[in-house]
Amino acid sequence: MTKLERLAQVLENVLAGRLSAVTVDRDEITAEVTASEYLNVAQILRDHEELAFEQLIDLCGVDYAGYGGSRSHAKRFAAVSHLLSLRHNWRLRLRVYADDDEFPVVASVNDIWSSANWFEREAFDFFGIMFEGHPDLRRILTDYGFVGHPFRKDFPVSGFMEMRYDAEQGRVIYQPVTIEPREITPRIVREESYGGARG
Q1: Which of 21, 104, 113, 181 could in theory staple to 56 by disulfide, Cβ–Cβ 3.0 to 4.6 A?
Q2: How is the chain split into domains, by residue range?
Q3: Alpha carbon of 76 to those of 61, 103, 128, 135: distances in Å?
Q4: Which helix (H) or strand (E) holds 3?
Q5: What is the secondary structure of 60-119 as a DSSP string?
Q6: Cβ neighbours of 178 (radius 10 Å)
Q7: Architecture in CATH for domain 3-136
């Protein structure tokens, strides 16, 4: 039995009935859990002797709108965590879908793995996923006055306002876009002998 098969078996034994799915693909294992079970499962993944996922090494938001063409996901937003067990030397991807696409909310795992703090803030900032119970859920990379969540698939890619830092005022200011839209036609420069006989 491979290490990956052993981990899948342990997950099934320890978390029987709590996981929505366990998938092994490309030598990686993904466990899916419902939003209502997420916090309990995370606690067990960290504390159970046979699992012992002591470290959360990454957490990100995902917008599945239009993902995979004909393949569709029942829910639009998910939080995906990557966990590491140093004791057993194995890794796990844990995915939880938010129940409501209009106002996505999942529990914060910051009290279980403190490294989740800034990762959850980033997922909130870019995708608008709310992490219930997070101690300081506010934007981390965009400006405090920023409107919207730029990694959502429906976020507009162009607009009419731009922001810049004004040294005289000592703050970020917003102003109408100063760049005129234009069509750029590339200019081709060739040497005189290009394509011809060399002499």
Answers
A1: 113
A2: 3-136
A3: 11, 11, 12, 25
A4: helix 3-14
A5: EEEE-TTTTTT---SSSEEEEEEEEETTTTEEEEEEEE-S-SSS-EEE--TTT-TTHHHH
A6: 7
A7: 2-Layer Sandwich (3.30)
DSSP 130-180: EEET-TT---SSS-TT--S-TTSTTS-S--SEEEEEETTTTEEEEEE--SP
pLDDT per position as a tens digit, 91-135: 999 999 999 999 999 999 999 999 999 999 999 999 999 999 999
pLDDT 10s per residue in the chain (199 long)? Answer: 788 889 999 999 999 889 998 988 888 999 999 999 999 999 999 999 999 999 999 999 999 988 765 456 778 999 999 999 999 999 999 999 999 999 999 999 999 999 999 999 999 999 999 999 999 999 999 887 788 898 999 888 776 777 788 899 998 888 887 766 666 776 776 677 666 655 5
pTM (2 decimals)? 0.78
3-state SS class at 121: helix
